[in-house]
Fold this sequence. Notes:
Layout: H1 4-16, E1 24-29, H2 42-46, E2 51-57, E3 60-65, E4 69-74, E5 79-84, H3 86-89, E6 105-111, E7 116-121, E8 127-132, H4 135-141, H5 160-169, H6 175-179, H7 189-199, H8 213-232, E9 273-277, E10 280-284
Antiparallel strand pairs: 1-6, 2-3, 3-4, 4-8, 5-7, 6-7, 9-10
Amino acid sequence: xxxxxxxxxxxxxxxxxxxxxxxxxxxxxxxxxxxxxxxxxxxxxxxxxxxxxxxxxxxxxxxxxxxxxxxxxxxxxxxxxxxxxxxxxxxxxxxxxxxxxxxxxxxxxxxxxxxxxxxxxxxxxxxxxxxxxxxxxxxxxxxxxxxxxxxxxxxxxxxxxxxxxxxxxxxxxxxxxxxxxxxxxxxxxxxxxxxxxxxxxxxxxxxxxxxxxxxxxxxxxxxxxxxxxxxxxxxxxxxxxxxxxxxxxxxxxxxxxxxxxxxxxxxxxxxxxxxxxxxxxxxxxxxxxx
Length: 290
């Protein structure tokens, strides 16, 4: 599932392709079924409008529009936003090697210059919906956004003291599932939780309330370092995730534990183990992580 680094990379990629302030000529709903059905009036709401900004909240993309509303998007497990420049948009995108899996298009946004923005989702767990109001209003009131925890790069709110207090309050809970709970901090996800715990030398099975302040501070720092490295690498392309131009992220090539079960730890040489924890795969070094 795309996490904060992948969604933020997607957001930056869309802005870099200059989709802001372009007039939307037409919107086509090609398949309605996602986590919720795509609103049938979305083409009417977006026609002749422009995207004024694209925000990220946790793993959601929020497209602000000139008519005072927002398109809310979640990539689910296999969702992709693909930008097709005007010179390619009239051609069959599937003939391009970068778009060989562009077979599950749900939404097609056609701009006045004939460039296109396409939402593709093979497993249909993503979300595309509409909410009235500006970004702040939507974050406060929309059912998908209003109960989300703090952003990890929000230095005013995601402090070491905040993180330690959350750890202490989550008694009898393993640290790795806690890191993936979006009511405390958002966007970390499985791969980045595993990598952060390795960097901080903390076992994924430790109870949150057993962490010392020093360990909690180390993990707080490891989360920020890991997420920043993932952002710098363009996220992780494990299965379906691609950038808006069809290229891949590269963080998966530099993981220390995730996906490396059976291989030697890069620090001590001990075999990396894999276990199922809360129905998710957990990778760790039994020697380095205590």
